[in-house]
Structure formats: C-alpha cells, structure tokens
Amino acid sequence: DSGVTQTPKHLITATGQRVTLRCSPRSGDLSVYWYQQSLDQGLQFLIQYYNGEERAKGNILERFSAQQFPDLHSELNLSSLELGDSALYFCASSVYTGELFFGEGSRLTVL
Amino acid sequence: GENVEQHPSTLSVQEGDSAVIKCTYSDSASNYFPWYKQELGKGPQLIIDIRSNVGEKKDQRIAVTLNKTAKHFSLHITETQPEDSAVYFCAASSESRGSTLGRLYFGRGTQLTVWP
User: Fold this and answer.
1) What is the pLDDT of residue A35?
2) Which long-range CB contacts under 8 A does A52-60 form with residues at least 24 apart?
3) Given this model, what pLDDT does residue B36 score?
4) For chain A, give me the number of helices (H) and strands (E)?
5) Parallel, antiparallel, or unpaired: how do β-strands B4-7 and B10-14 relate?
6) Which residue in B43, B93, B102 is closest to A105 by CB distance?
7) Pair B105, B3: CB distance under 8 Å
8) Cα–Cα distance for residue pair A79/A60, rounded to 1 Å
C-alpha cells in the first residue's frame, strides 16, 4: 500500500460526459502528479501541483483540468469525453522530489 | 523536454537467468533515475533509483548502472524468479530545475516474463 488513495477505481461513462477523479496523497506529501497510462502512449505526465499551486503541465488536453485543495487532495476533471480518453489515470505524490508514490489508478472506460 | 527511450519492450527469461533493461535519456540536466515495477492491476512501485553522482547501485538481486557521458542507464536483475514478472519502467528527472522539479519522464516500459 503506497498510501495514495484514488477514487473511483473503475468508471464507465459515455462520450460527451464529464467525470471527476479524486486523489488523496500520502500524509505529509505536498506534491501531486497526474499521469495517464494507455497501451499506445505509456505513462504520460499530465499535470503537477505543489502545495495547492500548479507547478508543471504536460500533455494535458484543454478538456481536462485539475486542482489541488487546501487539504492537499487533488481532483482531475475530464470533460467532453471521447473514446480515446479511455485509459488508466494515476495519481502520485511526493514530499518534494525523489520517489513518487503511485495510487492504484482509476480505470476510465468511455463508450 | 526530456526524452527517455527504453529497450527491449518485451523480455522473456528462464528462472535463474539474468535480465537487463536499458534506457537512454536526452537532457543532460537530468540527475535522478528511478526504476519502477508495475504488476497487473496496480500502480508503479519504485524498486531502485540512482542519482547522477553515483555510477552504480545494488540492492540484493537488482542493480542499476549509470553512464552520464553516454546518457544511458540500465537495470540488472540476477537470479530471476517468476514473481519478477511485471512491467518495468525507467524514468528520468531533474531535481534541480525550476518548474519541472520532481516531474518524471518515463520510458515506454518492458514486459518481463520469467518462465519457471
């Protein structure tokens, strides 16, 4: 158990819909990262937050957004969903740098 | 940005044999190189890491080597066991660069299968 909690574990929805994925980092970790894992793209970095502020953006679509709240949990919002958005979405946390601790992921299926 | 390439994409070995996975990186500012193991249905988990001030690091049956000049690093697993079967990812990061601090750039992964 990494200490990072992600909900929901599985999510099935239709094209055009909007979903929210939630992440609770390890106690004491200030950095939260979101990664997307698909068969053809591997582990793609989406976005990073540090203590509530956005630190870095990767290949995150404009339809996606994220935030980190004062209690340090984070949410990833995916809207106007397309079939190609089906993937595993991982949240990871770290104190600052060094080892990232990954949650078990949220599997999104868009039908 | 950083580009990490990983080879091979699949690797099959007999139990007891050694396995080697190789990665190259492009950004000379990268100074932290972790390896993650991902088992089916789980998130990636760190198994070993190395920083650029060290050339080699070992932890029981696993070892990582780093060649900064050539910008490549490798994972070595000796005396492989069936429970080593998983997907292995290499990654690179700069622990000293501004906005990308802590962000990991991953290779595409290697599916390792260890046959009994």
Assistant:
1) 96
2) A55/A31, A55/B99, A55/B101, A55/B102, A56/B99, A56/B100, A56/B101, A56/B103, A58/B103, A60/A34
3) 96
4) 0, 11
5) unpaired
6) B43
7) yes
8) 12
Q: Which residues pair with A27 in a beta bridge?
A: none
Chain B's closest residue to A43, CA to CA, is B106
**Cross-strand partners of B70:** none
**CB-CB under 8 Å, B46 with A33:** no
Residues of chain B with pLDDT under 50: 99
A14 token code pair: 């239709």
Distance CA A92, CA A2 (A): 9
Average pLDDT along chain A, 111 residues, taken 10 residues at a time: 94 97 95 90 88 90 96 97 96 84 96 96
| B19-25/B72-77 β-pairing | antiparallel
> Do A41 and A88 meet the contact criterion of CB atoms below 8 Å apart?
no
